[in-house]
């Protein structure tokens, strides 16, 4: 029987049991194992949220849909099931849409489920409450978009949405739920039959045998092999097979940001601290769930050196191949299946990567690590990035289980380099777009989905995009410790506007005390001015599991423009005005 079936007072004599759109949506979600919804209530989905909560689904209410959307997006990454975001029509939908586009760009499965206004009025553009043709607007920004007009189609609508989100290359799906749908009544038995439990939503995609052989031949020919792990490899949850493949190959590996920890950054083959060397000097590069986009300089140019390269690429999406440079050994398939096929084929006598190459990479790595070490031990006050990150690095080492959320410019780039990760899917950050604003949404999503403590290290600008969600964190009593690297601004807090009295465009109120914000909601606020203070405060927060916000005072002059990617800023050829 449908859980939520009701007997309606004016039912015909035989007292048919009835259900409606509200309950069918709930039943469709539950049938498919979706246990959590992230959203913001309002017309026409307030009652739906209440009923979903009453039915046992966890419904987390945010202060802004974008943050709920980011929580859903990261839930998708962490669980391989679509994270669900629920919004009201027009403005709520638009607020959630950025996160849906972000999920699609990052290949995270997510469903944005928005209430919408009366179709007849919207389509005639007669000015309905929150009128907007949401389906048309969502379509180009996600993997698939559907609208359900009839209660009897809810089952199929959700089946299509779930399958579209998780199968093949995962991504965002929009599901348009008009207000009228929720109240539509139908026979409970027919309603139950109309629901679909999606069977094998993300079927394995086995790579072709000749593609695997081609990959072997190329890999075998390598004198200086390199394996690059992308967040697709982390998503795949094929951790053991990936580790075995890397170890069997003996090749240095380079983890992209969110693939850090798939193998520990301290692993003897990790080339994270010798990135420029391995990119330049390698001759065969095997990409596993990593794309040759801007983050890898499109696989060409100065970063990649002059020596010819051969690329092997493992990706589920055939269109990814040759997107930037020629891929001599494309392996199209899901990462788990592809890596297993490679591993099986390698057999017992696979020759390890040439020792001189591995040694050269490792000595470069040691040199770079040694160069960095003293900077991480300084106890300056105000802190510089390295002093602050030095203590956080130790804390993460001691608490490898915790989720590490990270955004900002310098705060991001330097933390990525300094902080070693030890377990898969523990580092969550700005992703493909380098977007600011994921912080608190990711923190909530990660805490809810994993039950693990979260340490979010945020630039003061980055934090501002989602800062109001510290109320959400306090309300749900989540074990989240937010550390704000407060350097009084975007990149630096030292810019001066020489014309007029307005502050420069990149600076904020000097000496802001972000820690006081969380106290308004009953959380713990700490102002930390030295690495020692920071260490004490973070350890106390992680031990207590209580919502905490630490204002880490960073020297406003310490950062650099745009962190590590200042080269992407266009330059004016005209002389700067005095
Ligand atoms: C949505 C969005 N808006 C704007 C930007 C441009 N942007 C890149 S980094 C950044 C903030 C950097 O400052 P902060 O977070 O304080 O880090 P810091 O470099 O100061 O450590 C901004 C606004 C962006 N990446 N995403
Ligand atoms: Mg800053």
Secondary structure tally: strands:
20
In whole angstroms, how far apart are the ends? 77 Å
Low-pLDDT runs: none
Kindly report the spatial arrangement of strands forming the biggest sheet: 4-3-5-6-8-7
User: What molecules are bound to this protein?
Assistant: thiamine diphosphate, magnesium ion
What form results from the Cα inertia axes? globular
Mean pLDDT: 96
Give the helix/strand class: alpha/beta
Please summarize the sheet with the most strands. 6 strands, parallel
**Strand content of the residues, in percent?**
15-25%
What is the C-alpha radius of gyration, as a whole number of Å?
25 Å
Helix content class:
25-40%
Q: Number of helical segments? A: 22
Short description:
This protein has 578 residues and is α/β, with parallel strands linked by helices. Helix content is 38%, strand content 16%.
Describe the structure.
The chain is of the alpha/beta class. Helix content is 38%, strand content 16%. The chain is built from 22 helices and 20 strands. The strands form 4 sheets. It has a 6-stranded parallel sheet, with helices on both faces. The chain has a 6-stranded parallel sheet with strand order 16-15-17-18-20-19, sandwiched between helices. It has a 5-stranded parallel sheet with strand order 11-10-12-13-14, sandwiched between helices. Helix 7 (154-166) links the parallel strand 7 and strand 8. Helix 16 runs parallel beside helix 22 (531-544). The longest helix is centred in the middle third of the chain and has 22 residues, at 355-376. The N and C termini lie far apart (77 Å). The model has no long low-confidence stretch (mean pLDDT 96). The site of thiamine diphosphate has 18 residues, from helix 17 and helix 19.
């Amino acid at each position: 029987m449908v859980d939520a079936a009701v007997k309606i007072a004016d039912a015909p004599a035989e007292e048919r049991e009835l259900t409606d759109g509200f309950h069918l949506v709930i039943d469709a979600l539950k049938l498919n194992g979706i246990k959590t919804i992230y959203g913001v209530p309002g017309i026409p989905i307030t009652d739906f949220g209440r009923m979903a909560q009453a039915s046992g689904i966890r419904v987390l209410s945010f202060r802004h849909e974008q943050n709920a959307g980011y929580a859903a997006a990261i839930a998708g990454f962490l669980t391989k099931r679509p994270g669900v975001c629920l919004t009201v029509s027009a403005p709520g939908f638009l607020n959630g849409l950025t996160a849906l586009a972000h999920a699609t760009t990052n290949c995270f499965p997510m469903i944005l489920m928005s209430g919408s206004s009366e179709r007849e009025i919207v389509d005639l553009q007669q000015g309905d409450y929150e009128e907007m043709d949401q389906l048309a607007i969502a379509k180009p920004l996600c993997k698939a978009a559907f609208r359900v007009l009839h209660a009897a189609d809810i089952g199929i609508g959700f089946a299509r949405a779930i399958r579209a989100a998780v199968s093949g290359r995962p991504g965002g799906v929009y599901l348009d739920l008009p207000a009228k749908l929720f109240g539509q009544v139908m026979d409970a038995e027919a309603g139950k039959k109309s629901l679909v439990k999606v069977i094998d939503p993300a079927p394995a995609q086995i790579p072709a045998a000749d593609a695997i052989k081609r990959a072997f031949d190329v890999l075998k020919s390598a004198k200086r092999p390199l394996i690059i792990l992308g967040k697709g490899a982390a998503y795949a949850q094929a951790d053991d097979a990936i580790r075995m493949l890397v170890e069997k190959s003996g090749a240095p590996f380079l983890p992209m940001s969110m693939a850090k920890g798939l193998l520990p950054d301290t692993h003897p083959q990790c080339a994270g601290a010798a990135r420029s060397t391995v990119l330049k000097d390698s001759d065969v590069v095997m990409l596993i769930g990593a794309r040759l986009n801007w983050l890898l300089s499109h696989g060409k140019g100065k970063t990649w050196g002059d020596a010819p390269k051969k690329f092997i690429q493992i990706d589920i999406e055939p269109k990814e191949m040759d997107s930037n440079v020629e891929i001599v050994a494309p392996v199209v398939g899901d990462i788990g299946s592809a890596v297993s096929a490679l591993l099986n084929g390698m057999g017992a006598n696979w020759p390890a990567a040439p020792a001189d190459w591995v040694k050269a990479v490792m000595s470069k790595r040691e040199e770079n690590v040694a160069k960095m070490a003293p900077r991480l031990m300084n106890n300056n006050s105000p802190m510089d990035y390295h002093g602050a990150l030095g203590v956080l690095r130790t804390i993460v080492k001691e608490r490898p289980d915790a989720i590490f959320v990270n955004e900002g410019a310098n705060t991001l780039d330097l933390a990525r380099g300094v902080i070693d990760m030890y377990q898969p899917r523990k580092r969550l950050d700005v992703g493909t777009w380098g977007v600011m604003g994921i912080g608190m949404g990711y923190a909530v999503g990660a805490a809810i989905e994993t039950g693990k403590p979260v340490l979010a290290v945020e630039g003061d600008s980055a934090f501002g995009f989602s800062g109001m969600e510290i109320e959400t964190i306090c309300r749900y009593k989540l074990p989240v410790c937010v550390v704000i690297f407060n350097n009084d601004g975007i990149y630096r807090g030292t810019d001066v506007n020489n014309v007029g009295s307005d502050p420069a465009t990149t600076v904020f109120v000097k000496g802001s005390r972000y820690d006081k914000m969380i106290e308004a909601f009953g959380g713990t606020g700490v102002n930390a001015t030295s690495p020692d203070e920071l260490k004490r405060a973070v350890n106390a927060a992680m031990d207590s599991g209580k919502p905490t916000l630490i204002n880490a005072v960073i020297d406003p002059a310490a950062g650099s423009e745009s962190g590590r990617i200042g080269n992407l800023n266009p330059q004016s050829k005209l002389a700067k005005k005095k």
